[in-house]
């Protein structure tokens, strides 16, 4: 167990190093992407640019620049933005993280529960009209762009139907901290949760249905039937448990990516100032320190959630434990 | 005495795009309490479908089952799902061929056995678990407590098959359907598992239908034998009678190609030439005729019926010609 954890940590550090170097090179060493000119602003005199270069250490060799930036992110935590001069970057990421986490975790609960229900019902009634209907709905869910769904949701819940009994409870856009008011926190996030979950519900329901149908062909399913279990018990106890593995894998990746900033569009549409929103702003203004900070935060999350998945995996499926 | 199970004119067909194909055709047999019946035949002869039909476990929506299957006088074909479910794993239990894949990989052996016990009795979880350990002990698994806590893939093939048998026995079945229970195991383990199955009759009072493609297994274990070929029973008799005086040329072929259970092969191994016919290309007459060395005109228009009383065979070769013909095939 200890060796597994150590291996994980080494793995994580290696991934973080690789990603940070890559991002650093893209923004600092790409020909034409001169950060000093960008900071100095349009039409700045060469003297100004040179001064900025010195001030920000941009004239030093790249490895040194990289090392300095990492030090400022991880150790001194005083890396400042190139755009809003003087503003510290790391605290901003830490302020945005709970917002993203609230959004993604809530959506994840919704999509997992609903997708399992849909996948199981579709598999139980496979090839019937129920199955077909559910699969068409899933496909629609997958194909609707999240930005569009969010805009439509806003249009109805904030706009034309806001004053009907249906949506009068919806608070104005934006995030309300859980510690301030759990009820308002919930209300402000419910529509974003559903919006974000729709795509994944469709995806997971289809994946789970396919996995279930495949599992139902296995020999041990026949054994389960021969024991006297009802068809529902066979599906929910034996087949589902074995099929969830495929969903767990997907979930680890998707969850990590979303918490790492992949929920950007949802955050933007609903005015939630999460990590995705931060990344979006940083990219718009090419705020390099901010980009570095969010990217590193994101990769930490992807790697960590991957590690968590491996552990959950083993809990779900003893086959995985034995493979070690 | 009423038989425990009586099958009359069982047919299993599949709806395909080319119409209905018959995989099992006109199979009839019965089995008494505590009797061991062996069903033998090459793979594809319909043995598995025959026993799966008993509990409606074929599990293919295109399968059509007709005929009559009576268990203790109750008709099972067309029976309500709840009634069948109560029988499955209760009065009639099943053992499948491949112990590697027959158990759910994500539950422990003990959990899977006690699950079955709890379906059919109202024992507490704890009591069911204790009974599972007892059963594992009864089928000869060493250290049954630990075995109960293990996952299927942590056991060897033979141990797994013992666990499967323990599970099948958990509710004292009156009838055990064993579908090639030893085929996937190596020879020494095979003999142990057969010994175990033979003991079931004494310890658990179970009747057994033992499916195999190996006549040697039947010789060791069964009271009576039914030989199947291409979906039909071609010969059936008490085990002693069948081995003393086999009637059907297909049975001769099986005997000729039978390696002894001890693994020592005969000097000459007579194998049957050719392959069984595809289900949709079965000849009009006797299905074995394309591979038979004794075909006559009367074999070809329609399959011969099973004739005889105790020892039945579906062949036109008359009693007085049989020994000579058989010696041509089996002379060593
Ligand atoms: N679900 C199915 N659909 C179509 N054909 C089947 C199906 N199951 C079995 N068969 C065919 O029925 C025949 C008998 O199968 P089976 O009873 O499994 O044979 P055995 O157990 O004697 O080896 C085989 O030729 C097989 O191909
Ligand atoms: Mg078979």
TrEMBL record, chain A:
Keyword S-adenosyl-L-methionine on entry: no
Main subcellular location of this protein, as a coarse class: membrane
Stretches that traverse the bilayer: 9-29, 99-121, 133-156, 184-205, 242-270, 290-316
Family (UniProt): Belongs to the binding-protein-dependent transport system permease family.
Designated name of the protein: Peptide/nickel transport system permease protein
Entry's Gene Ontology BP terms: transmembrane transport
Alphabetical UniProt keywords: Cell membrane, Membrane, Transmembrane, Transmembrane helix, Transport
Membrane topology: Multi-pass membrane protein
A Pfam entry, by short name: BPD_transp_1_N
PANTHER family reported in the protein's UniProt record: DIPEPTIDE TRANSPORT SYSTEM PERMEASE PROTEIN DPPB-RELATED (PTHR43163:SF6)
Protein's organism: Acidiphilium rubrum
Lineage top rank: taxon: Bacteria
CDD domains registered for this protein in UniProt: TM_PBP2 (cd06261)
From TrEMBL, chain B:
Membrane topology: Peripheral membrane protein
GO molecular function, one term: ATP binding
Main location: membrane
Name the record gives this protein: Peptide/nickel transport system ATP-binding protein
Keyword entries, A-Z: ATP-binding, Cell membrane, Membrane, Nucleotide-binding, Transport
Pfam family, one: oligo_HPY
Gene Ontology, cellular component aspect: plasma membrane
Residue intervals of the ABC transporter domain: 5-255
Family: Belongs to the ABC transporter superfamily.
Entry's localization field: Cell inner membrane
BP GO annotations: peptide transport; transmembrane transport
InterPro entries, alphabetized: AAA+_ATPase, ABC_Ni/Peptide_Import, ABC_transporter-like_ATP-bd, ABC_transporter-like_CS, Oligopep_ABC_C, P-loop_NTPase
Top-rank lineage group of the source organism: Bacteria
